Amino acid sequence: xxxxxxxxxxxxxxxxxxxxxxxxxxxxxxxxxxxxxxxxxxxxxxxxxxxxxxxxx
Length: 57
Prior knowledge:
Blueprint: H1 3-17, E1 29-35, E2 40-46
Antiparallel strand pairs: 1-2
C-alpha cells in the first residue's frame, strides 16, 4: 500500500470512528505519546471542560 492510499484509509477510518457517541469521564482523560528520539513515554492529563455555547449557524 502506498503512502497516499494509506493516509486516505486512515482518514476514512477516523471519519467513521468520529461518528461514535462516547461518554466522557468527568475527571478527564489521558493522552499517551511516545517520543522515539528521547526514548520516553509522555502521559498528559486533560480535563473535560467543554464549552457548550455554540456560535455560527
